[in-house]
Amino acid sequence: MHLDELRSILLSERETGRLIQVPHDLYLSTRDGIEKLSKEVYENEDPFSENARILIERVSSIRETLHDIFRIRSAKILALAQGQEKGQFIDRDELKKMIPEERDMFDQMVLAIEQCRCHLIDGMVHRPPIKEGGEERVEPCATLLDELASSEPEFMLGRVLQDMEPFMGVDGRIYELQKEDIVTLPERNADVLCERNILLNMNAVK
User: Which helix (H) or strand (E) holds 186?
Assistant: First the structure.
């Protein structure tokens, strides 16, 4: 995506308190554009030439604009999550304007706010309803926190064998990895990457 298009999106986001519709591949297409520009920089015979300087400034401007878009949209999504947790009406159009990764973030925010409220105020941890006579089950913190701790994902130490696209792990974190990075990943994600020869399991290296 071109810098002018990103700036137009940023301006629109700043002018309204609501989410605007953005392309679902906003971040992916922008990253692709950055990679192409970066490749041009590296292929430039003179890294200190005027052309190289212009390309570097363009990459920097694109990154900064994309970060601003993410920051503003994330703040709006947080406000929606807070409203949802309070039981306020949420316009379904707002949810439709989120890209899939933003919708995941919204759902996680709502759950995190609810769990924290129950933990700090009620001394309980709220969990999704379990069908037992149609009633929700809410359990004391101590017992439930033990259960949550035991259900946390196992992690694996590994070395990245090739560059990869950013992805969300089962722990909810976004991972942006490059070749030769040493990283600790949730075991479920790491197993998949190992099977595809993208990650080397360092726990198994002796």
Answer: strand 182-186
